[in-house]
Specification:
- Helix content is about 60%, strand content about 5%.
- It has 31 helices and five strands.
- Strands 2-1-3-5-4 form a five-stranded mixed β-sheet, with helices on both faces.
- Strand 4 and strand 5 form a beta hairpin.
- Helix 9 crosses helix 31.
Length: about 725
């Protein structure tokens, strides 16, 4: 097993749990016992999947749970058995291991690297408190972060002890390209249904752009952060003022998370585990769904890359890595609400490094100081806003918390609970079993099946067992802390878990656990023959591919025909000429809905109610359409009064009436408008190419700086 496969250089053994003592002879002779234990763990994990959903390797069956059954209890017990067997196998494989010294020495940095960014940030925050937000405040905030990175980069000496092979670069490049295709293909129509919150964010972002509002710090009328709206506005300016432009930042962030997760997995557990983790994230239906909407991909990317840089800093001791980790996690606070788990995870890692890790193996205090410093700079004037307007900063958080009286009363009734114990048990079940049993409780996906594939869930249970046996090593502590903190803060103590917009930021941790589970399988059946090891890795790769193909068809089958009445009506309206008048006949919805405000801004609309509904005297000088939702009894009157009109009736897969479209054109007939040319997205793709080009140039420069060419000696 090579150095990278075991998790890194001996200097970070305390962080990675890498054994530095060769296995004993008896361990080699009895390796079959570990293989037997792992085989039992795999069988138990997949048997549990069958008890939960009636399937082993696919997710075709809906798992809508109304009550707890004995099969679920047996499945939960089998998950525990699988985790325990994996833990025992992991301890057996690492028996007799010793742990090396602490992380690499902490490299020095100039005082200017601290004082100049701190001064710029303090000045900007002071101006924000005294005079409010201005262009100068925003400039000082950006300058403070740029100064920190620039000054640390000036003195940074890259390490080159773990070079990338060409095959490795090709593999992660192929994964990233595949991940982009899965997240971008038919972006405007898949998923068919788009939750009202997406349209809300689009409508408010367009309002922000129309008002030329450049503010970054504070809360907007949508109850989301201004900074989040500005990120969406940037995407729309680059990629077009339409649905695709709105969600392109999520597509790009979701795609970028794939190589970021590989960096993290490679840093922690080696190339094999990192590649499995990145591959499973690439083909995760949950990840590419949320990358197609708005809620989660950007904070997930920032947190994943930030933690990768943190552990790289533990290995190199470079202040640049620690400060960059803090900056990225701090920037995550400016995005969607799920990004707020990032500082909590970092704080938990800090606490673990002080309490769990042995005294001589703890990271240097200066490392954490740089992380905190970077996080404060990135948070910037928002820190002052949070202090002054804490309740506003929490946004919807206090409204969905379990202790909110309204939420508590709802939960008591939902679970038919007799007390707090019943509520908490059901909250924990729904949250922690979302990878095996429970589907999405939100309207953003509403997928009635578990959060990850069966293959990922089974490997994740094995990986959890490995981590629990080495919990005193920060690398193994990380995915457990990431998993538990996210599930508790985003699920157990919130309303109606599992609510995947809050929880999808946990996916990188789950994939890391699955990568560890895959590595455990390889170690248990492939020691010491390298050929066997490669064969097992190849088999795992085939299983990932099979799982990925199944995931895609399961997703398309569900999301390709799930449009709700309002979204279906909005999509239908986009086919009609801009001059078409729209009349909405409904007592429960209206033209003021965000779906119409965002997707049909080019049309004039009006609610058809009261006397207008009784008379039905509609102007016929221009085309008009009447959207009938629950008042389809108007249809015969419309057909009688406007005989040239055309009726379109839409039903769901069960035959239930969703809506009726009555379209009338002057002179009769139905003339849908031709597909309009999409907005010019050249600027967006040019920006992406620029970012990728700058990154590649930086990588080349860093490698050359790390390994300078030696001039050959001149002949005498």
């Amino acid at each position: 097993m090579d150095e990278n496969e075991e998790g890194g250089a001996p200097g970070v053994a305390a962080l990675t749990g890498r054994p530095v003592v060769a296995p004993t002879r008896s361990k080699r002779e009895l390796a079959w016992l570990a293989a037997l234990l792992v085989t039992g763990a795999v069988v138990a994990a997949f048997r549990a999947q069958f008890l939960f959903t009636g399937e082993v390797l696919s997710r075709w069956n809906d798992s809508i749970v109304w009550y707890w059954t004995p099969e679920f209890s047996r499945g939960t017990l089998l998950l525990g058995v699988a985790c325990a067997l994996a833990a025992v196998a992991s301890m057996w494989l690492s028996r007799g291991a010793a742990f090396g010294p602490a992380a690499a020495r902490m490299l020095a940095a100039t005082r200017l690297s601290i004082f100049l960014p701190a001064a710029l940030s303090a000045l900007g925050t002071a101006l924000f408190v005294i005079r409010g937000e201005s262009g100068l405040v925003r400039a000082l905030w950006l300058a403070s972060m740029a100064a920190l990175v620039g000054l640390l980069l000036r003195d940074h000496v890259p390490d080159a002890e773990r070079p990338w092979s060409r095959l490795e670069i090709l593999g992660i490049g192929v994964l990233t390209a595949l991940g982009f295709w899965l997240r971008y293909y038919q972006l405007a129509t898949l998923p068919q249904h788009t939750d009202n919150d997406v349209a809300l964010m689009g409508a408010y972002t367009l309002d922000l752009m129309d008002q030329k509002d450049a503010r970054l710090f504070g809360l907007y009328a949508s109850d989301h952060l201004l900074s989040f709206h500005q990120i969406l506005a940037l995407g729309m300016r680059l990629f077009g003022l339409d649905h695709e432009g709105l969600v392109m930042t999520s597509v790009l962030a979701g795609t970028a998370t794939i190589p970021a997760l590989y960096l993290l997995g490679r840093e922690l557990f080696g190339r094999g585990a990192g590649f499995v983790a990145a591959s499973l994230l690439t083909v995760s239906y949950t990840h590419y769904h949320f990358s197609r909407i708005l809620f989660g991909p950007l904070p997930t990317f920032l947190l994943t890359l930030g933690i990768a840089l943190l552990f790289r800093g533990f290995r190199t001791g470079a202040p640049l890595h620690f400060a960059s980790a803090g900056l990225l996690c701090g920037l995550g606070l400016h995005t969607y609400y799920s990004g707020r788990v990032g500082p909590v995870i970092l704080g938990c890692l800090l606490l673990a490094s002080v309490t769990l890790v042995k005294r001589g193996q703890r990271p240097a205090p200066k490392a954490w100081a740089w992380v905190i410093f970077g996080g404060i700079l990135a948070f910037g004037p928002m820190l002052a806003y949070m202090v002054m307007e804490l309740r506003l900063f929490t946004g919807r958080g206090h409204e969905v918390a379990l202790w909110n009286p309204r939420v508590w009363a709802h939960s008591m009734g939902k679970y038919k609970a007799t007390g707090a114990y019943d509520v908490l048990v059901n909250q924990v079940r729904a949250t922690f079993l979302t990878f095996h049993l429970y589907g999405d409780g939100s309207p953003h996906f509403a997928f009635p099946r578990p959060m990850v594939s069966s293959f990922t869930a089974a490997l994740g249970v094995l990986g959890l067992g490995v981590c629990l046996t080495r919990i005193r090593a920060l690398a193994y502590f990380l995915p457990v802390a990431w998993l538990v903190l996210t599930l508790v803060l985003g699920g157990v103590i919130t309303a109606d878990p599992p609510y995947w917009p809050h929880l999808n930021i946990v996916l990188p941790a789950v994939m890391l656990l699955a990568g560890l589970g895959a590595r455990l399988v390889v170690l248990s059946v492939a020691r010491p023959a390298p050929a066997t090891r490669y064969a097992v890795w190849a088999l795992i790769a085939v299983m990932v591919a099979v799982s990925g193909v199944k995931n895609w068809f399961v997703y398309v089958d569900f999301a390709g025909s799930d449009a709700g009445p309002r979204v279906a009506a909005s999509r239908f309206l986009r086919r009609l000429p801009p001059e078409t008048r729209v009349f909405v006949a409904s007592d429960v919805t209206g033209w003021e809905e965000y779906a119409f405000r965002f997707w049909n801004r080019d049309k004039e609309g009006k609610n058809l109610r009261g006397e207008d509904r009784e008379k039905l005297d509609l102007p016929v000088d221009r085309p008009f359409i009447v959207l009938l939702f629950e008042v389809e009894e108007l249809l015969p009157r419309l057909q009688e009064k406007y005989p040239d009109g055309v009726t379109r009736i839409r039903r769901d897969t069960a035959g239930k009436l969703l809506n009726v479209f009555f379209v009338n054109f002057p002179g009769g007939g139905f003339h849908p408008v031709k597909a309009t040319d999409p907005p010019d997205r050249t600027a967006g793709w040019a920006a992406v190419a620029l970012v990728v080009g700058v990154w590649l140039a930086g990588v080349v420069w860093m490698r050359r700086k790390a390994s300078p060419e030696v001039e050959p000696p001149r002949p005498a």
